[in-house]
Amino acid sequence: MAFVRDLQPTAAVRGNLQFTHSGLVTATYFIDPLGYGLRKAGDKHNVKSAHHALVNSLPAGSLLLGIQARLNTLDVLGKMVEGVDLDDCEDYALEVVASFERVRAINPQTRVFLLTIPVGNAGAGISGLSRMWRGGSAGVDMSSISREDLDQYDDKASEILSKIGGEFNPVPVPAAIFQWLWEHYLSRGLPGDPVAPTRAGVIDDVTAAVFRSAALDEGAQADNRRLRPSFVPVIKVVQPEYGFLPSYQAILTPHAFPYNGMIFPGGSEFLSVLEGAGDVTVDWGIRVSTKPAESVLKNNELNLRRLGEQMDQRDQEVSFAQNTLMSKAQMLAEYNQHFEVNSGESEVSFTTVIAVGSSSPETTMDAVNNLKRRYKRFQVDMTAPLGAQVDLWSMMIPGSPPRRAFDDYAHILPSDMWAGFVPFITSQVGDDSGPVIGVNLLSGNYEPIHFGIMEAALHDLSASFAVTGELGSGKSYFLKLMAVLVHDMGGQFLAIDRSQVGEWEYFASSIDDAVVIDLSNPTVSLDPLRLFGARVAGERTLDSILPLLDLSPTSGAGAAMSALLTPRGIAEHGIRSMLDLYNVVCRMRDTPGSGEEFADLAARLGTILDRVPVLFDPALPALRLDAAATVVRSHNLALPTAEELITPHLYNRLPLTKRLGTALYELVGVAAREAFLSDNGRFGLLVGDEAHHFTQTHVGSSVTSDFSRDGRKHLAAIGLASHDPSTDFQGAAHNLIPNRFVFRQRDETLARNSLEWLGVDLGETPFLLQILREETSPPTGPGRTVPEERRGEMFMRDALNRIGRGKVLGPAREDRAEAIGSTPQTASMVARRASGERQITA
Fold first, then answer.
1. What is the pTM of this model?
2. Does position 371 have pLDDT exceeding 60, yes or no?
3. What is the three-class DSSP state of 622?
4. Residue 824 CB neighbour total at 10 angstroms
5. Are 620 and 614 in contact (CB under 8 A)?
6. Cβ-based neighbours of 68, under 8 Å, separated by 6 or more
């Protein structure tokens, strides 16, 4: 049984500098992992190059750590409220409060990445004999270390980090991280595992007194009632001074890697197997040392000479030894050539430790056996060595002195091959702050996915987003979720509702200060000459009306109308509305000597005069977009299909009803653009289903482009949804909208189009097609319904082009969740049922 006071090397800590009893000084940093997930091979090779530079610059004895830690619920809620004034946003404050229990129930975790590098020695003047005489515990006298010494260690660390580069953004850890790391190791896998301190706190100095004492019982001998010792590779960690349950831990290390190497990408990232291991905590650590190419070449020459001598000695021997020696010589030649060709290479000697912990030995060993089976996929043979468990356990402690086991289980690789392990990577998606829209499924840790739609503009990023998926996959639910979050955070939204049942109208009824407009039975006017200011009203009218009347701007009638709608023409003829425009055109037609173009224009305007009161009725008040929520119902409008919009001869033959529908649809978007893309200090979101009506027409494409390009400057965004991104998300919607979400798509062609639009290379990852079609919110059981726990599954790409897989959660507030999840049909049935019950009672 080993006592951990013998394993804890720390004598004192000053900031991120650790002073050990042996005199070693280390510096420890938080590491920002690089985005990986489902990105393309070219991006993954860039990540590998960053790791190559990292390992070539690390001094001998450096330690890389990936620690699985609980996320602090209050930290998650703190990120939700960044940039939001809760005093003015009472609805969002209620959402955040309701999120507390949900986040705590999910118990999200994350992986904290740390890098420890040796930066010098303190107390080097003390002889080894003296240190041994004093018990090895007084190797460092902290009172003798001056500010200049600390600066010298910091300078050494900065020099090493400068060689590594800035891709990993190393940040000095607070002193409290060493105490947390120790307590995490002692309670690995237990419910009371502490939350990691990720920010500098009050404690800047730490002494050895803060480290708890405990005992490590290798083989859990205290639990063994038999006389014979236990040979189970497990460590029982007991903290007798505290009322904690014992932690049962097992240490795995690679025994052998594939003889033929590991293919990158896809076959070498063996640490990714550790994510989502179940009801256990799994940490990893890698201790590395490097040799420059010159030393490697010299050693190769020496080894080749020794092989030659052995072959000479066995020249007359009849056995397989000669073939074995020849094979070794050939491998050595290939290894030597690798370093001769790649002058910047180095040789990496590394020891990898994987620590698995839980509250019971059975759970721990089940997880160990499961991990071994997983590693068979990578052809990596994992072992849990008996007798070396405690020594390998200690390797993960920063500043731990070298032990024999570190060398016994070390492996040697060229640095470019080691870089293919890419240990510092993440599957994180979403933003650093903002409302929680779901959880991450790709990482296996269920981290909350933040989508800072209103914060993106402040970080010079576009907040616009687009959604695709089949009917019933969750597109509309997600659009309503984003709309209600924008409203609750103090913004406003305008949504175009194409559904026959009026699902957005029903949803808007739960929001105060909501306005619902039915374009087929108008209560407001969309007359562009009344909606917009005199400076732009004429141009906006021409953009919408000329395509409706099938007129070219340079044709006779088109040119006549263009002349009337210049600022000068509007003022000269007193044109204040579309009805005024029609009356002026009729007057010009009846004026002797006027051209035929006015007669043509009057006839064309006359065909729509009585059909579109929303444009020509002066008694209707003009649309005002200052409401918190505006829903425009367009369900009775005839709209062209995507094929009709992109095929010239079909577009030319569009009936008048579809031209009218398109014009009104565009006018709503143009009105939202004028209202939201202005510096009014309020965030505005334009929501449009049936995206091809925005992206395939000239005016709609312009609206989409303006929101995508300039929304961040004016606190505005556009949210679009469609079934087929290859035809509907073109132009600005394809190139300029960064945030993309793909829900279930069972049709193979549409699924392929959706993943390619997301940025996935199906040639590299063809299995994702099956996952999207068959394993994303799959309908199962009687009625082919989606189980509640599987709803909302999706793929997404965030503003940083990271691609991942997640699950949309919806609002935490029950009233909000019911409003966006219920359909008017369900609500009417409930109302009728309640009415019937009242009649029966009466």
1. 0.85
2. yes
3. strand
4. 18
5. yes
6. 109, 110, 111, 112, 281, 282, 283, 445
